[in-house]
Every structure is written in C-alpha cells, then in structure tokens.
Q: What sequence folds into this?
C-alpha cells in the first residue's frame, strides 16, 4: 500500500464521524429536543427504554449559594418567642466569642479545639474562666444540645431566660478577656 492510498483510506474512515460531530454541534438544540422524546433505542446488542416519568422528575435543588452557608451554620430563624431558638442563638453567640478570643491569642486555626470540652479546657488554662465557670460553659452546651434535639423537652420562657442570662454573663467575661488581651499588645 502506498502513502496516497493510505491517506485516502484514512480520510474515508474518519470523514463520517467528523460529519456526525459537526452536525450534532450545529443542531444541538434540535438533537436535545429529539432525545427528550426518545422512548426506546438499540445500539448493537444493547437496548434501552426510557419511562415518561423520568422526564417528569422535579428539578434538582440548586447548590447552596454563599449567603445560604450562614443559614446552615446558624440556628434557624424562628420567632424570638421560640425558647429553643433563644437557647440555640445564645449558645451560638457564646461559642463564637470563645473562638474569637482563642483566635485573638494567635492560636492557629488547626489548634483551635473543635469540641466544647476542649474550649472549656482552653478557657481555664488561659485563666479566662474559673473552673466552676468552665463547668457552667459545659452545662450550657449540654442544655443547648438537649433543647435542640429532645422533642419531649419544651423549655419554659423562664428556663430560656435563665439560660440566656447565664450564656450572656459568660460571653461578657470572654469578650472582656478578649478586649484585655488585645489592649496588652
């Protein structure tokens, strides 16, 4: 076989796939519409069949946008009269104050404790909270988890107010320590 024959056969063999690809790209909207109407097909030994129900599936949920992440990380926005929300929000504020304090002490993010027990230990070691206050911190964490997850528990307004006051008192101690540590520098 000479070169001319080889190139001629190569062009013949590859011409039809190129024409199909160009046609598919040129008429992609029309091809897409036709494929949506396709119910059955056979390619070689393989056969396939689509059900109309598949075409009528609800659209997928869009991915989370950046502003949605705050809603995922923060307790859900419920009316302020909801005692569970009040407890969850107070805990959220307290925990964020503790993490901010630890960051202000130049603690690398990788060394920040992930659990409440580690946070309480760090607060005691830094002498931000006394041991009994660290125990209160842990008790508040346990109560916030219980309020969020136990359907049998319905905190009264008075209990929620006591929780919020205790959490706010600890948060003020932590924020005072954070201000004090930033004024030392």
A:
């Amino acid at each position: 076989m000479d070169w001319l024959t080889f190139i001629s056969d190569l062009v013949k063999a590859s011409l039809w796939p190129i024409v199909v690809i160009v046609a598919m790209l040129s008429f992609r909207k029309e091809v897409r519409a036709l494929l949506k109407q396709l119910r059955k097909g056979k390619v070689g030994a393989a056969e396939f069949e689509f059900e109309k129900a598949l075409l009528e599936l609800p659209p997928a949920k869009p991915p989370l946008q950046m502003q949605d992440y705050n809603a995922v990380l923060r307790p859900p926005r419920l009316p302020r009269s909801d005692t569970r929300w009040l407890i969850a929000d107070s805990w959220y504020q307290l925990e964020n104050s503790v993490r901010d304090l630890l960051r202000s002490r130049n603690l690398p993010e990788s060394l920040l404790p992930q659990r409440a027990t580690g946070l309480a230990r760090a607060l005691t070691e830094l002498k931000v909270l006394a041991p009994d206050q660290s125990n209160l911190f842990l008790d508040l964490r346990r109560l916030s988890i219980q309020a969020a997850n136990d359907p049998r528990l319905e905190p009264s307004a008075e209990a929620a107010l006591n929780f919020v006051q205790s959490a706010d008192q600890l948060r003020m101690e932590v924020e005072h320590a954070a201000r004090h540590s930033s004024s030392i520098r």
About this structure: The first strand starts at residue 40 and ends at 43. The first helix runs from residue 3 to 26. Residues 101 and 178 are 5 Å apart (CA to CA).
